[in-house]
Amino acid sequence: MTHEVERLESTSDTCSPAIALCKSIASSKGYYQDPFIHVFVSRSGSRPPLINRGHYARVTAVRNVIFQFLEACGNNSDDSSSESDLAHGQNLREQIVILGSGLDSTFFYLKNMSKIDESEEPETEVDDKEGDLGLRTREYTLLSCDMRNCQELEAALGSAGVDFSAPTLFISECVLIYMKPAEGTRIIEWAANLFPCSIFFTYEQIHPHDPFGKVMAQNISLRGCPLLSFEAYPDCDSQKQRYLEATWETCEAISMQDFYDGLPEEEKSRVAKIEWLDEIEEWKMIQQHYCFILATKDAEGRKLWANLKIST
Q1: 58 known ligand binder
Q2: Which residues contact 310 (CB under 8 A, 6 or more apart)?
Q3: Which domain holds residue 279?
Q4: 270 a known binding residue?
Q5: For the whole model, what pTM was predicted?
Q6: What reactions does this protein catalyze (predicted)?
Q7: How far apart are CA 82 and CA 87, in angstroms?
Q8: Which residues, 6 or more positions from 3, have their beta carbon under 8 angstroms from its beta carbon?
């Protein structure tokens, strides 16, 4: 095993459980509903309100994109549609590919909302060949592969029955930033070239050069998880340019503070009542150091983008 592979595995082993725990704590506090995330954590804990609210913003951003992607795929213009209707996705071909999703509960959350009859499910198949663990059902496949090798990634998705021509949403939450710039860009280009009707959502850190960004990068690096692409794409503008140069047709990027400010006032009022937050300025500083990126590909992708009601 090479040093680079060991480093990436260490990053996964360190960061993924920590994020799953934070999401579980925020859910238990009532910031959002997720009856499954606790299954992905092996211990209990607590986090300060500003961390809980930050993970609320993160989860809300991802869910907003997912629901609006599904709605756009369904050409559903009925404003009365519920989240359950959107999650059901009956007779649609849309696909969601979550990169680095080993401890991600999104599928189970969506499945729970869709109320699919369990009797229709085939038996779960678990593959453990040459150390590569995989789990596969009719609707969900968990794959293990080296994403830096796009040929390996493409083969893995193909074996899972992914339709490369179907509307596809890629989700990358703090994944590409742990790779070298060229490695992450290769994945972005690969997705743009192989999936003609697709959207790429990314959630990552920005602003590495100010005092807060330097401390954040140092703290993460001390855990053995250096942010290898942090300085290469330091702000929203450079992130946008990265995707456009990788042949994505359109790209928008905003800070998570801007995203949160754009949420409905009644929702922000609900969240504010969950836990008292004294560190308002620190909260804003943290959110300004994370960004929300959406890139779309080709004419069909632009139609999906037009239907996405992203708060800004």
Answers
A1: yes
A2: 64, 65, 68, 252, 259, 294
A3: 48-116+163-307
A4: no
A5: 0.84
A6: [phosphatase 2A protein]-C-terminal L-leucine + S-adenosyl-L-methionine = [phosphatase 2A protein]-C-terminal L-leucine methyl ester + S-adenosyl-L-homocysteine
A7: 9
A8: none
